[in-house]
Amino acid sequence: MNPKNELSVQDVADILKVSKSKIYSMIKNEELQSYRVGRKVRFSENDIKNYIQNSKKGSCAHEQETGSSLQKDDFVLCGQDIMLDILSNYMRQRGVSALRAYIGSYDSLIALYRKQVNVAFAHLWDSDTDTYNVAYVRRLLPGIPAVIVHLTCRMQGFYIAKGNPKEISDWNDFSRDDITMVNREKGAGSRVLLDENLRLSGISSKDVAGYNHEIQSHLTVASIVASGKADVAIGTEKIAKQVEGIEFIPIKKEQYDLVFRREDADQYGVQTLLNIIQAQSFQEEFSQIGGYDTKNMGKIIAEL
């Protein structure tokens, strides 16, 4: 195996957005495959891909099953931003059994439609209206009254190598013979943004080198670009600031919103969530972190 493809416990914790202790617990419970090099625990990229794929098919974080209906006392938040991990911790402190499901935006809305999660988080761009999320909620939750509440705005853009040696500047560069990308998984908001812009630019995915190389993490795709294994990837500005060796080209300011069924609006879990994100202290916590625009956090975007 190429040593560059070996992942440490910290690498996997960053990818899955959990603590190192959680990773060791997953190894002990045989939820996650690993191997040892001397005393050090290591993972292959396939180990992580298999875990993520199995999670999408069956189990979510904290043993919530995406293929089954919600358990009575569970309250599942479905999305991939680290803000949701912190939000779920706040909810547990207030007596809500808040669980996490690390699933992309498109599949999150489908899980909400199937009553497999309580709240879905999404950043899906609709090219026809140049708006986020509302059009997708209408399509993916047909006949279901829903509420969309704004969480934050983030900047999406290109991860490129330091100094931009390939002089990448726009979507048309993705079809160049000397450019290789690394992609996000189907259903991720970043993937939808890419696919829509390739379509609008008249570029076939068959003409984009690396298009089928799919990864389920902003951090990992940024790291792949930093290592020189790809020339470009799509992701958020916040992650770009955490990875050495890359630069960020801003492309689109996106909305990251939460969605729940209107029939659940009076649920204790939903009310607790809304109270937390509407609190000034929570908003100030993220406004100081950087990479998050909390100006309209907690504002109702639409009631469908």
From TrEMBL:
SUPFAM superfamilies found in the cross-reference section: Periplasmic binding protein-like II (SSF53850)
Record domain Helix-turn-helix: where: 7-54
Domain PBP: 91-278
This protein's UniProt keywords: DNA-binding, Plasmid
Molecular function GO terms recorded: DNA binding
Keyword DNA-binding: yes
Keyword Magnesium: no
Highest rank taxon of the organism: Bacteria
Family matches, as PANTHER family: BLL2305 PROTEIN (PTHR38431:SF1)
Name listed for the protein in its UniProt record: DNA-binding protein
Record lineage: Bacteria, Pseudomonadati, Thermodesulfobacteriota, Desulfobacteria, Desulfobacterales
